[in-house]
User: Which sequence fits this backbone?
């Protein structure tokens, strides 16, 4: 941390900063320039944060240097991690396809969607039983019944399942059925939920908040890691910008940036960011080419009748093209499609 | 709702839309232009939403016309509401000052802050016992102990208390001590929490998500209202934009816009949006002048030692100026400062 | 400027930075911490910028400390400036109302609008002869004919005129008729135009780019000031954000922030930011209360027939309310409405 | 265009809209629902725009349906265009690499950079002689001298040249040396410049404004096309968002979206959006995979000494990897690297 003194700060102001930092157990190094003095701090940054240095007389700015997350940082963990979900790896050497319906609607629909996904090369099944919806009047998911359907389809297909949990109270229930817990974009800073999934003994897929910086995303992962769970997969799914031609703006740069800052795997959701079927395949290609460790895609046997996000679900013809893409593109960037 | 057909759509495409809408119990009106056909829909919009009209052959766009919220809308409730918190009104004729420390740290600090607030004209006391923090390493609040401190300070000062709840599981506990429950910006779309406070029998202050549209904010209020609780106060606290000179950008226009769309009171938090002490008073003046029904402000007896957001807390000299402002400015816009 | 070395940087990396800075005529101060070394630079920041320190081995980050603008900065010019436009002051003690039609359409319309403006308390007349339009198919203004109409209306009413210039080639022409040159939001970084108005011998109103940070806005003003013209008035007119309920989001905080960073007057355009007539008066009140040095408002005798931005122009009843507002509100914040 | 009447609008309000539209030469179709009436308009949308329908009594909203650009739209020009620059094609079957230094600094540096670019597979040379800079104190380019250097390097290497023009007055000069004129992100809505390049008889590369919607970008292209110049290449270069980990956020989805809306070629600038050398290759891969018609990349023989944007210029090792990427990746998506 660096404290930048104002140009009008006097010696007493500088000394007050030094004394406060030393009292708090840190070290302070003073650099004097022609117009400004800078104080470099060494020690426990969190503790310095509590000192309110910025509020002291003569202080112009406080600049943080160390990253505020530790467990998920690559600084102390240089090798990129592999997370295993029911035996299926997500990590740096492979490209894992996760696919399935946005919402579980019935055993038939879910099984059909799973078989479509599997035929396209998917090794993990996604499907929502609890759906967070902006409108209280929209379909909210089948709940526990949906979880049982997913478990049956896992029996049938052998695909481990990924499903969202939206309430800290439901974590045990969902963890008893699912192979991986998903935390959705609107819950990325629901700290009670992050702590609950951190203690649930299941890998977690953490979607980036559509309003969250990459740093805040990694801080949210740190909440989970702090509870002892390091099996976290980060999922970029688009951020909110001024552009309205797409539902959200897929921040494709976030993939290499997050992979450089953190050892955790990073995957991409091309279905929810674009919100349009025509964009799913192009965005999938971009995600694989940039080095994503996986992609998660909506498929539905009858999108025109889907209870949730039908307009973005892939259908038959698209799926053959998806199968070709996930087979041919990863080798060009030094990866292989994850096999069951 | 209006369905806009693509220029290449044929008669069969149009008929398919009409048939589907009528099957779903709605009415469809077809308008044919030289290049385009438009189908106007009348009926239950939520049901049409489930039809995935946008995914049908020949459909170019679907434009929603009615607002998607009902209970909080001003369309069916033309008069602006007054919400009473422990007897203190928040509504169209008054300007209510809510003030107190960002976080409850000790009985002494809380009492002192409450007395400072009261001297400045505040009739409601704010103070956080449960603090949602971006970093898992930051101070998270005193929890239940903080609630008891707040209750004691209410005894001493007579000020009803407003405090945040961050977890659906804590709603009953917080409601047993507090006069008003606050839902914070990061929880605006925590639907489990919204439903829980909707059933808690206490007025709710709903902060706008820092990346939420005004429409999403009103939809979040609708979640609370649906559980039978109409005592909701909306609080604008700044949105996330590209500008970094301020912590967030106070969306001052949101006050008249939300007041036109909804009958609920709308207040402003000038402390958290700016994140700087120097901005609190100017933003307070802007909020009162534009017609906010109240403002909520951080005060702290010793901001330099505050465990949370010290740099934005008002101190002694500022408070005298605040007292003048809340006394002199409301009458110019046809309001009076709310009295105890 | 502070150079933050990476944790893996070695002594040679640090020395390379020091040597490069000293070769460039600067001073370098090295602060060593447990994990990181920081090098503080003193000297000509622009020159350091050209050194590409960020690209050197072992450098993690480069943090700028001094502000990058000088002539418009308040650091070297602590008193806030007054800019006079045809004798009418815009500055810290007054609140100046500038009003008139968005576009000059005819002598009658312009005179009527000017008389409406004057009756409401305006002392400067705005009106566009050259209009930058997003669509090449929209009305682009009357050009030189419009300038002559404005000059005639000035004769009739005694109001100095403010009008936009959109092309560096037109600066002399516009300056020969106008009392103040306006640079619009889309041209804030049209550097050729900035330099041209800097040499035109007329005060300049510089609108903030809807996509520009406050720092970039001040840098744009610096381009004008560098040509010897310090008679610059900054105009906040809303920024582009994700919110679509208003045309742009008025960044009301920018008023006190820009006034703290720069000595130049800062005014607000409440008409273009909101884009709706209902928002003009509320935003005007917020602007005056927060301490704007003026406001600039669209008025039109027949907004329903306006060729440009009719929906946001104030009409008769609104103007009486505007007159009351600009008379009664400034005194509450220690100012007086500027008189002719 | 659809006019949505307010729920309280009466028959006279509806008739007033119909009459006005018909008077203006359009057709109006009225659809009556239970709560709302909708009026569909057919005819010249630009003319309707001038009617200020939104300002009429009883009108709630006006929804535009047709796209506001015509010449660049794919609606009337279904096949995607090929633009030739000095004989080099940019279009749907190829992937064209444009590379060179951000700024022309000297004959040696420019020639070296051109040879590096050519070795990597580039067939067009980029290089800036006129540089728009946020700070008036930064290097502004060599101007005409830079253009002559570029022309000499074209002689030497055979590569046609692409260079930026920042002032309408310089268009003829730049066009007399360059094979393609570049309009930069800050000038995307400099309408005088757009019109000037539209008449210059050279292909134009139009960078997207970093805060422009895709629709505004296409409208800017329409300004150029209106002057008779259809040889326009669109260049996505990142938009401004709240994320600060990258200089801008590359809107990768804009590539397929713009290609669907317009027949013009769309290329990507991975150097300026990320602003970091480490991101250039990953973003290049994403751009090629999603179907960009080309990429434009900064290279510099000695980035540590570059006068402009050195930190993002590719150097030796990167260039071998770039060469592999532009050779191996296009065939996977059905394209071939453009050959000289």
Assistant:
């Amino acid at each position: 941390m660096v404290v930048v003194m104002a140009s009008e700060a006097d010696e007493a102001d500088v000394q007050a900063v030094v004394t406060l930092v030393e009292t708090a157990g840190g070290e302070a190094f003073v650099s004097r320039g022609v117009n400004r003095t800078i104080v470099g701090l060494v020690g426990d940054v969190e503790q310095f944060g509590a000192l309110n240095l910025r509020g002291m007389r003569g202080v112009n700015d406080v600049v943080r240097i160390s990253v505020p997350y530790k467990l998920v940082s690559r600084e102390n963990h240089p090798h990129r991690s592999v997370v295993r979900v029911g035996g299926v790896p997500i990590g740096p050497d492979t490209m894992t396809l996760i696919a399935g319906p946005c919402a579980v609607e019935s055993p038939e629909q879910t099984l059909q969607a799973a078989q479509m996904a599997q035929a396209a090369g998917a090794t993990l099944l996604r499907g929502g039983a609890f759906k967070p919806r902006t409108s209280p009047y929209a379909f909210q998911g089948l709940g526990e019944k949906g979880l049982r359907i997913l478990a049956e389809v896992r029996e049938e297909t052998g695909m481990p399942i990924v499903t969202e949990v939206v309430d800290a109270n439901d974590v045990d229930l969902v963890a008893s059925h699912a192979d991986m817990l998903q935390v959705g974009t609107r819950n990325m800073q629901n700290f009670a939920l992050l702590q609950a999934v951190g203690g649930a003994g299941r890998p977690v897929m953490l979607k980036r908040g559509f309003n969250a910086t990459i740093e805040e995303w990694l801080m949210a992962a740190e909440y989970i890691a702090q509870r002892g769970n390091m099996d976290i997969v980060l999922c970029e799914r688009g951020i909110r910008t001024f552009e309205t031609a797409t539902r959200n703006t897929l921040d494709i740069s976030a993939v290499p940036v997050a992979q450089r800052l953190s050892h955790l795997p990073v995957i991409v959701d091309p279905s929810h960011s674009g919100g349009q079927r025509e964009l799913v395949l192009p965005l999938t290609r971009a995600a694989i080419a940039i080095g994503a460790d996986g992609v998660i895609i909506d498929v539905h046997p009858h999108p025109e009748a889907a209870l949730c996000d039908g307009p973005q679900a892939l259908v038959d013809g698209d799926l053959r093209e998806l199968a070709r893409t996930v087979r041919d593109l990863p080798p060009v960037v030094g990866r292989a499609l994850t096999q069951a």
Notes: Chain C touches chain D at residues 46, 49-50, 52, 54-56, 68, 132-139, 166-169, 186-187, 189-192, 209-211, 216, 219, 222-223, 226, 240, 277, 303-307, 310-311 (CB under 8 Å). DSSP finds eleven helices and 15 strands in chain C.
